[in-house]
Amino acid sequence: MRNDGAPPSLASLGALFLRIGCTSFGGYMAMVSVMQNAVVARRKLLTDQDVLDGVTLASILPGPIALNTVAYVGYRVRGAAGACVCMCAALLPAFLCMVALAALYFRLGHLPQVDRVFMGIIPAVAAVVLAAGWRMCRTTVRGWREAVLAGAAVVLVLSFRGLLVTLAVVVAAALAGRLWFREAGTAPASAPSAPSAPSAPGKAGFLFATPLVLVPLFAGHAGVAARLFAAFAGISLLMFGGGYVSIPVLQHAVVDTYGWVTAREFADAMALTQLTPGPVLIGAAFIGLKAGGLAGAFAATVGVFAPTALLTVACAHKLQRWYASAAVRSALRGVRAAGAGMVIAAAFTIGKMAAPAWSSPVLFLLACLLLLRWRVEAFWVVPLCGAIGYFLL
Q1: 157-194: buried (b, 16+ CB within 10 Å) or exposed (e) per residue?
Q2: Whole domain around residue 335: which residue ranges?
Q3: Would you call 299 exposed, middle or buried from its count of C-beta atoms within 10 A (0-12, 13-18, 19+)?
Q4: Residues 291-346: pLDDT tens digits?
Q5: What is the pLDDT of residues 146-188, one digit of tens each?
Q6: Is 277 domain-assigned?
Q7: In Å, what is the CA distance from 2 to each residue of 7, 146, 293?
Q8: Is residue 274 part of a domain?
Q9: Assigned domain for 27 exists
């Protein structure tokens, strides 16, 4: 830790991460970059290596990488309370934005003009997910073994749906990685330093769970909210590789198993996430709002983010041992390759929800070119395709 003075107050830390959450459009690296600039370059609360350690830990654990890194950074600065405050502040702008967009959608979503907008947005979102999967493949697929794992993950996720399939793919990829990549398991030259936090990680469980006490304040939806929390908490613990990996299994759970939203509403929820300053999993608020009102939106959001953030904080002290473990790194090499394949499968899942019209493949190709060839941010690509859908279709 680089800060030589007293640690910041929780209020100032919350204000800092509230600003970070308001400006983090464009995927998890955008939030990590904004956070690095605010925490390291400007406030000098941590070093660059500290933030990199957080990204490393978040990458090998399930859940959204950016928000897990936020929890790690908050824990390094102010312990468990800091982790909870930073997570809540960073998520609040995206949560409020998604709830507002979802409320407008459920009021206006069946108007012809809105339908035309989403006819343009859905192919663009499929392109955003495919571009994320392509970038993951470029960094994780370094040989035929990784290609086999990624390809098998695509086939299995598209052929069979459900939590058990995702779990089986992750476990099989870890075992294959341990077997195939054991030669690459030499210890790194310098493992990251173990974090020193002012409070024990055991306190984090209570702090991350405290927002749930607000759920009973929303009368009439406590039972639905509890089911939403349990479902999203279970899904979050299987998300190795980031939020896009979870899209097929999330669709199976909320559409086919529970029936909380329709397939069209799920696709539209994924589209709206691209207009918020947060991760794709903030779509949980959309689903929760439809199923259980504000209590449902709140419970689903807590469920999908809190368990993995708590796991990140709990594992922070074991980072050095894990980083130096040849067995762990070999297994995770296989999991990352399969995760890239699952993201590709998620792009196909969303693409199948696009309107059966000539415009869908055209807008999909246009979005792919903008994202991959000219590297335009998704925050601009998705509204552009929506505007094309509104004015031309």
Answers
A1: bbeebebebbeebbebbbebbbebbeeeeeeeeebbee
A2: 99-392
A3: buried
A4: 999 999 999 999 999 999 999 988 887 765 666 678 877 887 888 788 888 778 87
A5: 999 999 989 988 888 776 787 788 889 889 999 998 754 444 4
A6: yes
A7: 11, 38, 44
A8: yes
A9: no
Per the CB < 8 A criterion, the answer to whether 26 and 378 are in contact is: yes
Tokens of 217: 């304040």
Q: SS3 for 325-377, per residue?
A: CHHHHHHHHHHHHHHHHHHHHHHHHHHCCCCCCCHHHHHHHHHHHHHHHCCCC
Closest to 196 measured CA to CA, from 331, 296, 60, 46? 46
Gyration radius of the chain's alpha carbons: 20
Q: What are phi and psi of 89, to 5 degrees?
A: -65, -40
High-pLDDT (> 90) share of the chain, %: 28
375 burial (CB, 10 Å; 0-12 / 13-18 / 19+) is: exposed
Q: How many CB atoms lie within 10 A of CB 110?
A: 9
What Å distances lie between residue 190 and 45, 186, 333, CA to CA?
Answer: 22, 12, 19
- Domain count within the chain: 1
Using the predicted structure, report yes or no on whether residue 234 has a pLDDT greater than 60: yes
Residue 88 lies in a domain: no
CA distance 316 to 80: 11
pTM for this one?
0.80
Between CA 123 and CA 116 the distance in angstroms is 12
Cβ contact 75:204 at 8 Å: yes
Note whether 89 and 21 are within 8 A (CB). yes
